[in-house]
Design a protein that fits this description.
56% helix; 36 residues; mainly alpha
Length: 36
């Protein structure tokens, strides 16, 4: 419980980016879409 550590945040970001890249390669997300 509490705030996640930097390692946990970095791991989440890496997994999330990998999923976004996979979906992007399939053409479900436009390549020029900016995510904020």
């Amino acid at each position: 419980y509490g705030c996640p550590s930097m390692d946990e945040i970095e791991e989440f970001n890496n997994v999330y980016k990998k999923k976004l890249d996979e979906v992007g390669e399939q053409g479900h997300i436009p390549r020029d879409l900016a995510i904020e």
